[in-house]
Fold:
Amino acid sequence: MNVVERANNNESTNGAARAAAYDALVARAQACRLCPRMEGRRRVLGAGNGPLDARVLFVAEAPGRLGGDRTGVPLVSDQSGRNFARLLEAAGWRRDEVFVSNAILCNPRDVQGRNDAPARVEIRNCSTHLRDLLTILDPPYVVALGRVALDALALIAPHTIALRRDVATGVSWDGRTLVPLYHPGPRAQLHRPFARQQEDVVRLRALVDSGRPRL
Ligand code: SF4
Structure:
């Protein structure tokens, strides 16, 4: 076996090990019953989240009732998903080039059945799955979509990022680069108009393409 064949062989062995570790994580998540109010909800982690060798992992807040909980894929089909698709398009990314997950893997609902914010304990419960996901994917860039994602990532490794101050700026974190962006949901546009969010994601793309931790 020559050098190139050996490198290809190592790559496919690593790819197979990563796929096996991911499948095991998906199985653990599907069997997870840590949060009582998530009974009957989907665990939104599986084949549709993205490629395991993606260079960018987007972490949003939680699956939506009309989005991930319905489709099994995060950030699709509801308004947040449609906005996210437009943001990726602005940066010239195809959805199948990035990996997308959430701070918590299940859709939190209030007593009326509407989307609710994740509880602190639910974020803590699910941080085990998020930590495992980071270990398996090992992406050079992690993008936190909103404050809840930043809070969840701080449980894995501390950071002092403030969304408003550091938006679209690369920060060295846990051996990789963490970039905060606003969540693509309609509520976040009160704080960051959509046109500014498009500029942010274009800046993120430039950072990722540069391969550097900061521009
Ligand atoms: S939100 Fe996470 S920790 Fe809670 S039940 Fe769902 S998979 Fe388990």
Q: What stands out?
A: The radius of gyration is 17 Å. The longest strand covers residues 176-181.
